[in-house]
Design brief:
Length: about 400
């Protein structure tokens, strides 16, 4: 018998016995001379227990429990344990049985409704769970936790419009800061509209995201992407430039698109100025590599190698080293080329294996950007890795 069942049965035994005693007395007064089946059911439960048929014992003892103020907490605790154990169908039956009792106090009924909502949520019956949690919004004792449950369900089902409405309720009526997730919900809506070909609606949602959270890097990138697609290059550059003030660590994420926007504008000078300005603010080695390509084109391999080498002395980086080696290979003596090529291959493989992003909340690692951490579900917590293995 596992530890959970042992504790559950130890808790049930005295309560079931007490319930049986109370009902037995009541029945004996009403039907004197007749034998109650309660005592036999209690003995049956004990026999199941002694024969290590724990599940049958639990069910028998639960049937003996009367639903009143003395036992309602026991029912709720058992339902919670059933759900945690994965026996959600038993938890649902128990909570439904509680709710069906007309003598149940309103506060106990609402608690049972909330637990039943958790049961439905656990088995993916989201419509039923949503219905119960919405009903509980009228109860001040369960409003906050019900809003949070609704928010989780809408995020899980990707109903971003409803998720935004719930987050706004949490912020306005409960005083909880929701600006970061709210901005992401509007970004999700913008993504959907953009995929549907409705760029105008997408830009409206992005404008709302930025009004809620001016530091939303995601909104700036998406906005820049739409303007770039619409060939509004100046607007795209303006959107991407906003990242410098929002969170410069994400600038490499938008770098290829920034380069494309400047190229379409035939503004090589402006692009070079942008790279220099970004590097002065410690934008990362990806921008240095991009600048080195321009220097290489203008001044040759040696000047580009010097630029990279000076940077690496202060800020060692595998990506920078990979670029430096590639610059030296073509100019190396024949005897040195194989060694440099081998070193270049090793660094390249290391870079391929290393994650580029890390969640600041739980430590989750990834090679691609996630705006919501897949592990801890926190929004805006996954950021580019900096240092020798990153930017």
């Amino acid at each position: 018998m596992n530890e959970w069942l042992l504790y559950g049965l130890l808790a049930l035994l005295p309560i079931a016995a007490y319930s049986g005693f109370r009902i037995g007395r009541k029945q004996s007064k009403e039907h004197r001379g007749t034998h109650s089946s309660l005592s036999s059911n209690y003995i049956k439960g004990l026999n199941y227990l002694l024969n290590e048929q724990a599940d049958k014992a639990v069910d028998t003892f639960i049937d003996l429990l009367t639903v009143d103020t003395d036992t309602v907490e026991t029912h709720l605790a058992l339902g919670n344990l059933f759900r945690k154990r994965g026996e959600v169908d038993r938890a649902i039956r128990l909570h439904q049985n509680l709710i069906a009792r007309p003598q149940l106090k309103s506060e106990d009924r609402n608690t049972a409704l909330y637990q039943l909502g958790l049961d439905y949520n656990a088995v993916g019956m989201y419509d039923r769970a949503v219905s119960l949690f919405n009903e509980l919004l009228a109860d001040p004792e369960h409003k906050s936790e019900s809003l949070h449950q609704l928010l989780n369900i809408y995020q899980l089902t990707k109903d971003w419009d409803q998720a935004a409405k719930i987050a706004e309720q949490l912020q306005s009526s409960m005083g909880e800061e929701q600006s970061k997730p709210l901005a992401h919900f509007y970004c999700e809506l913008a993504d959907q509209k953009h995929l549907e070909g409705n760029s105008k609606a997408a830009l409206v949602n992005l404008k709302k995201a930025l009004s809620i959270n001016p530091d939303s890097v995601r909104a700036s990138i998406l906005q820049g992407d739409i303007y770039l697609q619409q060939k509004q290059y100046r607007q795209a550059i303006k959107s991407y430039h906003r990242i410098l003030k929002q969170d410069i660590a994400f600038l490499p994420e938008a770098l290829p698109k920034i380069a494309a926007a400047y190229k379409e504008q035939a503004d090589d000078k402006g692009y070079k100025q942008f790279l220099n300005e970004s590097l002065e603010r410690d934008a990362g080695v990806s921008l240095l590599i991009e600048l080195s390509k321009i220097v290489q084109k203008e001044q040759g391999d040696k000047a580009a190698a010097i630029l990279i080498g000076e940077y690496l002395q202060e800020k060692p980086s595998l990506k920078g080293l990979h670029r430096l080696i590639s610059l030296h290979i073509e100019h190396a003596h024949d005897s040195a080329k194989p060694s440099l090529q081998l070193l270049d291959n090793i660094v390249e493989k290391l870079l391929q294996r290393k994650p580029r992003y890390e969640c600041q909340n739980c430590g989750f690692h990834a090679k691609a950007i996630y705006w919501q951490c897949p592990s801890c579900k926190e929004w805006s917590s996954v950021k580019p890795i900096k240092g020798i293995e990153g930017e």
